[in-house]
Amino acid sequence: MKVVVIGNGMVGYKFCEKLVAKFEPGTYSLTVFGEEPRPAYDRVHLSEFFSGKSAVDLLMAPANWYADNNITLHTGDPVKEINREQKTILSHKGLIVDYDYLVLATGSAAFVPPIPGVDKKGVFLYRTIEDLEMMTAHASKAKRGAVIGGGLLGLEAAKAMIDLGVTDTHVIEFAPRLMPRQIDDSGSKILQSKLETLGLTIFTNKNTSCITGDESITGMQFSDGTSIDVDMLVISAGIKPRDELAKAAGLETGPRGGIVVNEKMQTTDETIFAIGECALFNSMIYGLVAPGYEMAEVVVATLSAAEKAFSGFDMSTKLKLIGVDVASFGDPFVPATDCRTVVFEDTMKGVYKRINISTDGKYLLGGVLIGDAAAYNMLLQTTKNKVALPENPEDILLGSRGGDAPQGAGVAGLPADAVICSCEGITKGAICTAVEAGNETLDSVKKCTKAATCCGGCAPMVKDIITYTLKSQGKYIRNVVCEHFNYSRQELYDLIRIKKIKSYDDVLDELGHGDGCEVCKPVVASILASLWNEMILVKGNDTAQDSNDRYLANIQKGGTYSVVPRIPGGEITPEKLIVIGEVAKKYNLYTKITGGQRIDLFGAHVSDLPAIWEELIAAGFESGHAYGKALRTVKSCVGSTWCRFGLHDSVSFAIQIEERYRGLRAPHKIKSAVSGCIRECAEAQSKDFGIIATERGWNLYVGGNGGSKPQHAILLAADLDNETCIKYIDRFLMFYIKTADPLTRTATWLNKLEGGMDYLRNVVINDSLGINAELEAEMQSLVDNYKCEWKEVVDNPELRKRFNHFVNAPEEKDPSIQFEMMRDQKKAAGWG
Amino acid sequence: MSSTTTLTEVHWFFACKTDDVPLNGGVCVKYKEEQIALFHFSRREEWYATQNMCPHKHQMALSRGMIGTQNGEPKVACPFHKKTFSLEDGRCLSDDAECSLKTYPVKIEEDRVYIGFYGGFDKLSLTSV
User: Fold this and answer.
1) ipTM value of the model?
2) What are the tens digits of pLDDT across the range B34-93?
3) Domain A631-784 has CATH 3.40.50.300
4) In chain A, which residues have their Cβ closer than 8 Å to the Cβ of B69?
5) DSSP, res A530
6) How far, in Å, CA of A769 to CA of A772, rounded?
């Protein structure tokens, strides 16, 4: 069987891959002609070319893959002519190859609207790696850019322009809204305002009448009489199928382009197939990769005399446009008379979600997600598999409010034949089978099934299915640290404690294998510190510390460090304030008040750190551990000593707590605060543990978080006396330190803790595990072992030596460090 | 520097004593106007030298990075953004970066550590890749 493929794009390549997998070697010959100079590459991820991927990274398979599989590949050689009588093709370079079956995978070209001036310099298409290379060359000189086309590709092109440094970019869309084919009016408005806040200028209802400029583009004029100045333009106004070869060979094509095919992808000549974006099935062009792959599968099946038909394809998509999630699934535009819709809109956060539900409320028909598409996979599966909706269908959009999690949600509710990876057509059943056969990680499931190897959009769901399958097999799911330790952090913590190991190297020798890495070193170093509270720079543990811990300071832009002395509760005497000021002046440091009521001194050379600390320690300061995954600060309001509302002395209590837990190392940093009354001026509810005065004592809240995902702390216990409050904090912190995954704040830990707050309360208050005496004793031993680690460095010449920049010129500072002036202080020079 | 210097001629520069370098860690060595990161991977009884500048954000920081292995290949992680580089050939092992480090040979004689520079080549370590 002689097969010739015209076109070596993603779909043409996938056809080869599927053919090679299906047929025995030697039973066929396969010849491929490609127009572009390189073998097939991943056009879906083309924009990653700008974020550092090379043309080689994007290849679907390396050039030798074709030869290894006995495929003759002619790149840079388009086919000129098909001779259906003789069953031969003629290439541009003059090759004549005969075929039994011919597969047209010619793809599509960018549609260029007939606007005067499109041929000027600085006007580009967004289609091939060559287009991108030309854009890159031009962008360095360009200041203002525009993209014609506000569809999916147009917005990708706009992102590419921003990536190339043309930050002043306009998007011009002819239709009244962005992405008119995928999302509805309201969703489009949210998307538009979100993109505008990111710096894009967007015009809708705008028709470009001409492109101005002499040789190069200088501007654009629109049919409404307005104009803009631009020096770079990308046209992305849609695609047109490449059907000219088929047309010339007398095959039927559609009135608006596309090679007409039947359900077996046969053209009007049954020995010639068309697949991908050049094929017109049921009057429709399928401009996505997944249906193209499905078409390739149909042709391979037909060639092997198997029964398989193409029956259309779901055009749901999810993508991230300039950081904004956009998804549309099923039928996003069902008319209001044929469905019930649930819409959630948050113009503050730029989130829009719409689902269309069948009039009987039983099934999901489709929908649109903007700004937050986390639920996309689940909603798509629910639509495609006609999974019955919960009693309150809005729960699947909003989550259940109060009560238990909605029934029927999650991967458990999907049937085995639910297609999870639509690019490769992999079902839930196939993934479960792979997991049951021993492929228990995402990587090995990817290798075994090919799921999540194309666009990668289904990867989170594949992970969920792996976890679900393992759980249903009764397997314990472990989060192992890295390739050097086959243990979770919690297991490592227990083993190190039982074996009483004190150094990273001994831990690696006894419990791990290989030579360690930047993942397991800080995890183990932190566990050692949490267990024994020994000086972190001795016993060879110095080089296992994360860089900030190793230098007991925070590395900053430019390579200098910042210094944060502890100021417990934020209370400081005028004398000590003066010392900080004097030290800052002497070592030329930038000073700033932190959010945690301390003073941060920036711009210290690494070799000045010991001398700076020597002076601070002499004045009574100690390390603030701002560099460590450790207790940072206990913030306080002024409390009853001065405040006319204060119920208790919040400052004294904050100082007592900060001094108790100073130096305590944990899986992540820990922050705290004490407020003297319900007005909560210390913002205690945003802390890992926060304390608020009541008429009868203190309320203790835990699991709060500021940062990127703010979360309020939850009340653990109310109206406590000082002693009980500290006892509960001891137990809470130790329980967290013993059980949390690496780099997990208390908020995330508590969110993941099975049983949540009720469980935690049972453990630390009702002693349901019978471990409280142990937790308290362990905390007390850490408290008793505390020493200021900076004092130990200052007093130890061997440790001080490690703070020089040059080993062979200890008196010299890093000459590459540069500062600029701003508001009478220095700042780090920009990234080099 | 003359462009006619032969590329194969190795000049061995005395960097420091072996015990000046922390076990399983690095130090920064000043060589003319350049900064070289020198690592003693004592678990493997190996020594490596690379440019000190991380090519990602051009920070003089690699000597302060953690070292380790990935599938048995020795590597260093930049303290700034944890990009990792092979200590053997300097290539970037973090998949989202496209830059590599210049590497240098190291030899130990008694307790003295030497870094090898190829004539006419060493200037490269200061220029970005």
Assistant:
1) 0.87
2) 999 999 999 999 999 999 999 888 899 999 999 999 989 999 999 988 889 999 999 888
3) no
4) 484, 514-517
5) H
6) 8
